[in-house]
């Protein structure tokens, strides 16, 4: 039994066909088929049922494949450790963070890493909506701090960082805030909704909480959005930590809108599995793993 055979098995299951696995592994289909046949001969049972167009795992294959996934995870971990051990200190670590998340939870981590590795330039940028994910998948970020919306889970590793709540609000003088109770969608369509544009492009659009049929103003960041809402020119959702003072002082008031409850989102540290970690990135990742849950 060889690692290449296990990798071929995983590729067939992931792609659904022997040809798809061959394309994924950049091998001839005959070579992939030969690897699986040798593995089946060694095991003494068929891994796949081949009575249909797409091969499916046999009952024995299902059990065996579960163990294979564990082995491949361990191999990936060993490769990452080895890459870190032979690597030098990275000249730069790029981190992209969702603008909905406060910096406070990660500042101590970045401060400690900066002191431990003074030769590494830490580049930290904030992005809107799908912006962090776009940077990660395009290879422009080593690590992102973001939610899991649209994230290809099979291709990444994640660690929980915290949670944020986005709440719809308006100024106390805004018409929809005059009286208590839930505002209907029909009523809210008569008011301007202020939204933040994403920075991930159309391939990573994560627009949500948009009221259809209503007027919208689009801004580039949450500070602009908050200023417009405070001025009484519209309503919209803002992360609670970005408007704590305004909520306490009454400059902003929560809105109860039909179909738009406060949205609680879990935030994660996310890295690509296929990108080996160097010493600095390994240190950052270890610190995130030690964060209190």
From TrEMBL:
Domain HTH lysR-type positions: 1-58
A Pfam family annotated for this UniProt entry: HTH_1
Keyword annotations from UniProtKB, A to Z: DNA-binding, Transcription, Transcription regulation
InterPro entries: LysR_HTH_N, LysR_subst-bd, WH-like_DNA-bd_sf, WH_DNA-bd_sf
Any one GO molecular function term: transcription cis-regulatory region binding
Protein origin, superkingdom: Bacteria
Keyword Transcription regulation: yes
PANTHER family xrefs: HTH-TYPE TRANSCRIPTIONAL REGULATOR, LYSR FAMILY TRANSCRIPTIONAL REGULATOR
Family per similarity comment: Belongs to the LysR transcriptional regulatory family.
Protein name from the UniProt record: Transcriptional regulator
């Amino acid at each position: 039994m060889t690692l290449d055979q296990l990798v071929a098995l995983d590729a067939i299951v992931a792609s659904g066909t022997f040809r798809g696995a061959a394309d994924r592994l950049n091998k001839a289909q005959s070579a992939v088929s030969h690897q699986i046949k040798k593995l089946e001969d060694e095991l003494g049972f068929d891994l796949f049922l081949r009575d249909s167009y797409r091969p499916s795992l046999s009952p024995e294959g299902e059990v065996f494949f579960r163990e294979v996934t564990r082995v491949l995870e361990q191999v990936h971990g060993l490769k990452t450790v080895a890459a870190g051990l032979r690597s030098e200190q990275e000249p730069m670590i790029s981190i992209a963070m969702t603008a909905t998340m406060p910096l406070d939870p990660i500042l101590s981590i970045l401060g400690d890493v900066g002191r431990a590795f003074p030769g590494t330039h830490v580049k930290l940028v904030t992005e809107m909506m799908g912006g962090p994910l776009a940077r990660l998948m395009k290879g422009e970020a080593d690590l992102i701090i973001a939610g899991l919306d649209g994230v290809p889970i099979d291709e990444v590793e994640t660690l929980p960082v915290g949670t944020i709540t986005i709440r719809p609000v308006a100024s106390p003088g805004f018409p929809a805030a005059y009286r208590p109770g839930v505002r209907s969608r029909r009523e809210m369509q008569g008011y301007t909704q202020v939204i933040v544009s994403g920075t991930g492009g159309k391939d990573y659009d994560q627009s949500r909480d948009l009221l259809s049929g209503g007027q919208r103003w689009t801004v580039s960041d949450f500070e602009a959005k908050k200023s417009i809402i405070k001025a009484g020119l519209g309503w919209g959702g803002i992360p609670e930590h970005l408007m704590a003072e305004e909520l306490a002082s009454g400059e902003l008031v929560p809105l109860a809108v039909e179909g738009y409850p406060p949205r609680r989102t879990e935030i994660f540290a996310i890295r690509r599995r296929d990108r080996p970690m160097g010493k600095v990135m390994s240190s950052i990742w270890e610190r995130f793993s030690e964060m209190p849950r």
